Amino acid sequence: MWLPIVAAALAGCATHHPAAGHPSQAAGPGPPASAAPTVGVCRVRTVDPAPARIAVTRVKVGFWHGEDSIQNVIALADGSFIVVAQTPGTSGYDNGPGQDHVYQVSASGRVLAQRHDWEGDMMGSPVDLSYFFSAGPGARPMWRDPAGVSHPVSGASPGIYFRDTVGRFWWYVRSAHQGPSGLWVSNGPADGGRPVAIGQDQVGAAVAGCDGTVWALAVSGDIWRIGDDGRTARVVTTLPAGGAGPAPQWDGAITALSDGSIWILAANVDQSSSGPRLVHVGPSGVIGAADAATAADASVMAEGPDGALWLSSTRGGLLRLSGRGEVQAYPAPATQNLALDAAGRLWFACAPDLCLVTTH
Fold first, then answer.
1. Which residue in 204, 292, 266, 259 sits closest to 12, CA to CA?
2. Which end of the chain is more exposed for a tag (fewer CB within 10 A), N or C?
3. Is residue 283 a part of any domain in this protein?
4. Within-domain flag for 8
C-alpha cells in the first residue's frame, strides 16, 4: 500500500562549482587535492519495472583470519569495497577472538589490502577512497585518506562522521554524554569545526545528498536540509508524533537518492508514536510513506540500479519499493549493509561472503 501525500515530481539538480569564498574553499587543512570541490550531480530518477526474479551470486572473500561475520561493507569509487569482518569468539583486540579486521576487497573477492583497525560507526566518502573509523572504544575517530594514511579527526568523539560531495567533513553524536549535540561541519580532519544551527536538537541520523546538501533527522522528528553552502538550514517537514505519552524521540537511518530526495527509515526510541516509519521526503516536503507492514519489515536500505528502493527484510530476503509504492519481496540469504557499487550493481553482506544481485 502506498500513501501519497504530495504529488510532486523532483527535477534533477544542476551541477555547479563553488564560487570563490565558498565555505568548502575556506582556509584550513581541507580535503586532499584529488577531491575536487565540485558539488555533486542530481538527476531525474526513473524507476524500471520490477524484475520477475533476482539471482544472488555469492562471492567468497579470502579473509586472512578465518572471519565468519561481516559487520559492515562500503562500496568505493574504484569498484572495490571496504569490508569489516569479525573473527569467531568474544570481543577482543590484537587479532584475538572477536577482533574486527578491515579489508579492501575487489569485486571478485580478492583481498587487496588489510587495515588493522577496530571498526566503529565506519562510514565511507562519496567523493574518493577515504573513510572514517574508530581505533577502539573511546578512542578518537580517524580518517583514512585515499592514499591509505590515517589522520586523527578533531571534534566530538565518539561521533558518526561522513563527507559531503563537496569534500567537507560532517559529524554528529547520538547522545549528549558523548559530546556536543547537534550537527557539526569542518573543512578538514584537523579543523575543529563549527556547529550547524538546527536548534537544540540532537541528531538521530544524517546523510550527504547528491547536490552538496546534507539531510538530518533530529530526535524531535524535524527533518532538516542544510544547503550546499554548509550553513543555511531549514526544516523541510516534521514526523508526526501520534500516539500518547511523552514527546517521542526519533532515531533511524537515511538514504539519499540520485534525484535529491531521501528515504527515512525512522525508529521511535520511546515507542510513543504511531506515525509513519518509512517516509519519502524531497526538498518541498513529504512525497509519500510506505505502509506500516513494509516499514516494520525493513532494516537497511539503498537505491538500486533500477531506481527503486531496495530494503533488507528482517524476516529474510529483499524488498523492492517502486516509485509508485508497489512492494515486491524476493528470496535471498540473510542480508545486511546493502551497497551500490561504482558500476551500479547492488551488493549486500551475506556473511561470511559478499552477495551480488542481478535481475531477470
1. 259
2. C
3. yes
4. no
- How many CA atoms lie less than 13 Å away from 190 in the CB half-sphere? 8
Q: Which three cell numbers stand for residue 222?
A: 524535524
Sign of the dihedral defined by the CA atoms of residues 51, 55, 56, 58, in that order: negative
Q: What is the pLDDT of residues 257-274, one digit of tens each?
A: 989 999 998 877 666 666
- Domain encompassing residue 336: 40-359
Rounded Cα distance, 88 and 91, in Å: 9
Quote the number of domains for the chain.
1
Using one digit for the tens of pLDDT, what is the confidence trace for 330-353? 999 888 788 888 888 999 988 788
Q: How many helices (H) and strands (E) does the chain have?
A: 1, 29
Are residues 348 and 336 in contact, defined by beta-carbon separation less than 8 angstroms? Answer: yes
Output the pTM of the full model: 0.78
CA 254 from chain centre, in angstroms, equals 6
- Give the span between the Cα atoms of 290 and 293, in whole angstroms: 8
